[in-house]
């Protein structure tokens, strides 16, 4: 089957392309390379294209005629979305609108949409279920929730079958060490902490120590990127086998505080590093932990790397490979 993957040169998208290629899918990657890397595309063909440009997107869609579209391309930084909301609404919503319109022209019948736990805002109860209220507290979360609504409305009108996956915190690198994040100045906690341990960044900032959590720092559910991609594949297979369109949380169902993550990074890397404490960032909820029961029950997904130390280890080993390559 033919799969078009948007954002397939990026961190998560490239891991998904690797998995699809290994499973024998015919893959076409669409990426504007604003954050993605050409060399991260290990399977299929890469077309450098911005999804905000509709005409070439439609031409490509009509030429390739995919059976499935997996939509990863988006701006994803919560704190940046607070400062630049219009960029997030334009990029994340206009791109999705263009994509759906082109999919209609090409008769695409299946879609996997990359969403986020940010749609829940500050949850009233934990772990978070898909049926819980969706009240985002930042523009990024709202852009994802609006994107979900577009997909759902389009599906009802056009007969599309979809899986919407709400990610919690994705981290780690390919266990085979063929892929990993390549940002020099990452913002996500584990990736940044590993960079600090390596000496690429002088110190790690902790944003807020007065949250209503056991140690005062934010608590998150961290999932290994390969487990996340396997969840996408299981949802796709579930739809192809006749399953109904649905929304799925993707996480492990357990949370770690910022301070707990720092401790594990120091243990795994064997390196101490400076930590500086500063004010909260706007748009950060105190705690986000998934209830993945629906995903497990309906699709049979089972995580393989549910271990924070292993997540950090794969990322640390990947960083050491990059260091050797750069030298």
Automatic annotation (TrEMBL):
InterPro entries (alphabetical): Epimerase_deHydtase, NAD(P)-bd_dom_sf, UDP_G4E
CC cofactor: NAD(+)
Domain NAD-dependent epimerase/dehydratase: residue ranges: 3-251
Pathway in which this enzyme or protein is active: Carbohydrate metabolism; galactose metabolism
A Pfam family: Epimerase
Ranges annotated as spanning the membrane: none
Catalytic activity, reaction form: UDP-alpha-D-glucose = UDP-alpha-D-galactose
GO biological process entries: galactose catabolic process via UDP-galactose, Leloir pathway
Alphabetic keyword roster: Carbohydrate metabolism, Isomerase, NAD
Any one Gene Ontology molecular-function term assigned to this protein's record: UDP-glucose 4-epimerase activity
EC number: 5.1.3.2
Subunit annotation: Homodimer.
UniProt similarity note: Belongs to the NAD(P)-dependent epimerase/dehydratase family.
PANTHER family noted in UniProt: UDP-ARABINOSE 4-EPIMERASE 1, UDP-GLUCOSE 4-EPIMERASE
Protein name: UDP-glucose 4-epimerase
